[in-house]
Amino acid sequence: MKISFNGDEMVIMQAVLEANAILQNPEFYEIVAQHDQFDMANISPVLISGLMKASTLEFKVRVFRPTIFTFIKYYKTYAYTDGNYPNTLFLNANKLNRQSAEIAATIIHESVHAINGTTTYEFGHGDNSPIGKENTAPYWIGNLAYQLLTGNRPTGSQLGFAGIRVNA
Question: pTM of the prediction?
Answer without folding.
Answer: 0.86
